[in-house]
TrEMBL record:
Pfam families: GH115_C, Glyco_hydro_115. The keyword Hydrolase applies. It comes from the Bacteria. GO terms for biological process: carbohydrate metabolic process. One of its GO terms (molecular function) is hydrolase activity. SUPFAM superfamilies: beta-N-acetylhexosaminidase-like domain (SSF55545). Keywords: Hydrolase. This is Gylcosyl hydrolase 115 C-terminal domain-containing protein. Residues 780-948 form the Gylcosyl hydrolase 115 C-terminal domain.
Amino acid sequence: MATAGAMPLMAEAVAPADAAAAEQGEGEFFLVRDGAAVAVYVDRADDPAVVLAARALLADIERVSDVRPRLVRSVPERAGALLVVGTVGSNAVIDGLLARRRLDASGVEGRWEASVTQVVDRPRPGIGRALVIAGSDRRGTVYGVYDTSERIGVSPWHWWADVPVERRDSISVPAGPFLRREPSVRYRGIFINDEQNLTTWSHRTQEPDKNIGPETYKRVFELLLRLKANYLWPAMHPYSDFFNKYRANPELADRYGIVIGSSHPEAILRNGVHEWEPWAEEHRGGDGSLPEYDYTVNPRVISDYWRARAKQNAGFESCWTVGMRGLHDSGIQTRYADTVPEKVEVMNDIIQDQRRILTEEVGEAAELQIFIPYKEVLELYNAGVKVPEDVTLIWVDDNHGNMRQLPNAEEQERAGGNGIYYHLSYWGAPKSYLWLDTTQMSKVWQELRRVYEHGVDRMWIFNVGDLKSIENGLSFCMDMAWDVDRWQAANVEQRMAEWAGRQFGRRHGRAIAAIRAEYYRLAAGRRPEFIEPGLFSLIHHGDEGARRMSAYRHLLDRVRQLGATLPDAYRDAFYELVEYPVHGAYLMNLKYDRADRNALAVRQKRGAGTNRYADLAEEAHAAEQKITRHYNTRTADGKWDGIVNPYPTEIPKAPGRPEVSRVERSTASGLGLAAEGNEAGADRPLLFSSYTRDRRFIDVYNTGFAEFGWRARASRPWVRLSSTHGNITDQQRIWAQIDWKRVPEGTHEATVTFSGAGGQERVLLRVHNAGERARRDARGFVEAHGYLSIVAAHFDDHARRGRARWETVRGLGRHAAAVHTAPSTAAPVTENIAARAPELRYRVRFTSTGTFPVTVFRLPSLDQRGHRRVALALDDGEVSVLAGQAEASGEAWERNVTEGVEKLTGEVTVAQAGEHSLRLFMVDPAIAVDQIVVDTGGLPDTYLAPPESYHPRFDKGNGPTA
């Protein structure tokens, strides 16, 4: 369906039912025309969820046109046109059309949550034309209605992200038919978790007498339905009111059509954080002691505890979590079961007891049950817990977006099917990320595609933390859950452009998508919440830290330039969805970059520069706090008061104010110098290659506070300096480059002498000019500066083998793209790898010989039942298998998820300088590679990989810049 008008409608306005039908065209159906709207008919027999969605459509039509249609519950005797909304079997008009074969519902009837939208001429005597939205069930109808809202220009995020609605005088949709098939995943939903900020906001702006209650959940339920979701794990933490505290909550969920479940520590819809303690108090033992939440100690009291909730919520559409963990996300307590086999038997008893309770209290309506093998429960499941066949197994990621384990062939055949619990936000070890949406969409796509290929299609639940800031990530996950085949490796990045275009207009979609892609790429190097002192090198590779901050500054400039072109109506949405995340991430990085430079200045014994960087670090922290206040107090006129806070009081915080040092001011001055590659001085010479055509920096600084003049003189005419003299109070960065047209071929040395404040310092330059012809004739990556660095997506050739392949995935990893092996169900290749495994080839030129360390930067993924391996070879040499971390445990896993890469190390032997072929092989499927680095001598140890080596096809013509 298309849009001839694109605005939200309002609520109950007012024209004759057939006024908008006066000039209905054959190819389109007008919902609003000439100030009049068609009436909307919903049968009295239909579900309350359909009525609520229809009323929302009335409001959406009014938002778009300032005209509100009438909602009618009986069929008008006469109408030029009518909008018919209903469910097959619950709507007289729809059922009549089906009986007379006037409505094609062949792809709808008997399906799950499917619908069709179609214009039917003369559907009944007295009615000229009808637009029919017919659903296979109540949610199928609801999704058809909300899909129509989006197609007339009302974003699902119109309330939650203040996306404006473009006003139009008329609204029309194509005649159709338009079929919405069954979703790829049956149950699709979110877990509101770690929700202190959401609770603060809800209490301040929605329900002052509650900490998340019915008024807030109404907003959540409607958002879920607009996103085609149907499932919720409600807020659970101590600062939030538990869901069943207010009877209106489950009642409203049922009216909206939302299935309510509960997370892994909340068996049988019980919130242990709030509900166990009062229950225990009411069920003290005969000796007055409080019962423990331990099934080996108090099985009867705990069983009754579960039974009470099963009885209370038996009438609602619910999902029942079986199994048991400790209170508030802690491990299961089993005082009288010490060994793993004993604990397995206890878990089996627990599940049998819970199943008996559900059969007795809920009956057939308890069909939807899940078991979540999470943390210690996964160990017990793998050790032999007997989960009934009709219970859905919910597989869990490592909390950082990497699926731990997926169902094997036997588990894929279970009647209850399989689902996933996946984190877009996380509180816990080794680090929490609760502030911003920073997981790359391509990473999410990669993992969700993998789980679907393993038959996981019954339930997908996503941890969204406080909900706000996860708008894009959540939308993408729901899109994938609805139609998993819509996006592939080649076009997943285009989805962001489409989504941004729906929020801000198609002409801005690509620009916003490019901004978000770069934002995610920088976060892939290190999430803003994971920033800590001393991460990025300030002295190597053109100043690794400065290069990163330059990328952030450039990105923020693009954001501001684009934002300035948007109409005022879009400013709030743009701030929430684009500007604040970029600006916040920039400032979080900036304050620690400035603090790192302050620490370096202390080590260099600087004067004024030390205090200057201390001031800049604190200014950046203050600026970060300022933009958060703006979000909470000024955006949308203060609508979001309290919703965003990097530093909540009760849950893990983002990195706060960094520590800085200051030195006492003096009247002295002194010349100091640090050439690139040196923390101070110039012991390590500056290296230049005609292939990479680098520029190198020299920091000239003041060891005191009094200004002084300085001069620089190069010993060779082909050395070019960005500045040769000036006055310094704190520091100045000088860039050295080579005029390659003037330098002779071969290897040469030059010096640059700096003088000032009565001192003198010299810097040595080593320059290798292979000549323009050698550069022009290079066929692949060329070794220089003691290394060979390759972005994995920049391969020269590839080979598909054994129904498996390497694919390029744009928007994945630390660069513009990474490569991964597909499909995820491919068999591992462990024998005759060079002939049987899918392969990527990289042409390389070595100028050195010997056996060299090689590092493959793998993007973390897990397989607790298998392995995480790739293989390397040089030319036709021996194939070396590199094995990575397969389990979510230990220091290696903690380092991998914090850094976003795993560094697999091996060796290559170069017997002869010249042209070679570096070969990368798949061993295990669903494994991704970001970069490959060969250390041929003297490569410094830095957080990020060195800049990519020269390649005639991929070189951008620039060396590393600040």
